[in-house]
Design a protein that fits this description.
2 domains, alpha+beta, two-stranded antiparallel sheet, 18% strand, seven-stranded mixed sheet, 45% helix
Length: 305
């Protein structure tokens, strides 16, 4: 993200007119580990740093290290919740937010974070994840059941067109819930969820996919027979890498096992960690199923009375 000198000046002015030097340094330490203002400034430890100088130094370092969004998120949190028992009003904060959003981001109040916005291309990391860092995700995996039989039974062009339709369906469903498609390989894909109630969002996306697939088969599918999918949701830590094939993750391996071994066609399987976050209104839609590894899993499928 290219930051203008004007935006950096807004940040410095906001801090200089709103925070003590002590509070500025504490906030800088939230996004820059072991931040030491005296070390950065060259001022001797016994000499107080003027408020304006401190603000300019911190603004420079935050921008230089690519931490402007995270630091502004910290300022927003401080204005909302206070800091060290003190109420804080940040000057120019709406203007700072507007300037960052003009660079292609949007501030999500419900998450307290900036993410990429607008109608441009969506990136796997929401425009904010750090390559190589580990985060807690919820993943939705979908696989088209019996894909090899479909390829043998129908013309290849028709099958590929149907698979592309399902990819568009899954992508739209995942992105409506602030998720991202991390991987797609012919007959299935993986969606990632990170913000807010991520386990609930991933589970709802899976449920919605089954409903949308039913309507697709009823009204749009060009094949003589219906398409069927298996879905699974699992949550856990995973390293973020732009190249999906470079990721080595126990969470993703477990997700693949859940989908491949326990998900029946036209059903969604949840791991216990996902199910426990659903709440009573959503739990009602799932039934427990025994797994051979002695863990109880939870299944959703469409049913008619």
């Amino acid at each position: 993200m290219k930051v203008s000198g004007r935006l950096q000046n807004f940040l410095a002015q906001s801090m200089a007119q709103s925070l003590t030097v002590e509070l500025m340094e504490k906030l800088a330490g939230r996004v820059i580990p072991d931040y030491d203002l005296h070390r950065q400034s060259g001022f001797p430890p016994q000499i107080p740093i003027p408020q304006r100088d401190a603000a300019q130094l911190i603004a420079r370092d935050v921008v230089r290290l690519g931490q402007l969004r995270r630091f502004t998120e910290a300022l927003i949190e401080v204005e909302r919740d206070g800091l060290m028992g003190r109420s804080v009003t940040m000057r120019f904060l709406p203007r700072l937010i507007d300037e960052i959003e003009s660079l292609g981001f949007v501030f999500k109040q419900e998450y307290g974070q900036f993410v990429e916005g607008g109608e441009g291309a969506r990136t796997k990391g929401w425009g904010v994840l750090q390559e190589g860092s580990t985060y807690e995700f919820s993943f939705l995996r979908m696989d088209i059941a019996g894909n090899s039989k479909l390829v043998r039974k129908y013309p290849k062009a028709e099958v590929l067109r149907a698979f592309a339709d399902l990819r568009r369906l899954l992508s739209a469903i995942v992105e409506r819930r602030d998720g991202r498609i991390w991987h797609w390989e012919g007959d299935g894909g993986i969606g990632a969820f990170l913000f807010g109630a991520k386990n609930v969002q991933a589970a709802l996306a899976g449920m919605e996919m089954l409903l949308e697939l039913f309507m697709y088969n009823l009204t749009q599918c060009s094949l003589a027979g219906d398409l069927h999918v298996r879905l699974a949701v699992h949550t856990g830590p995973c390293q973020f890498l732009t190249n999906y094939k470079d990721i080595r993750s126990d969470t993703l391996r477990r997700l693949e096992t859940l989908e491949g071994q326990y998900a029946a066609p036209d059903s969604l399987i949840l791991s216990p960690g996902v199910y426990s976050d659903l709440g009573t209104k959503l739990e009602w839609f799932f039934r427990p199923v025994a797994a051979t590894d002695r863990h109880t899993l939870y299944q959703y499928s469409l049913g008619w009375e």
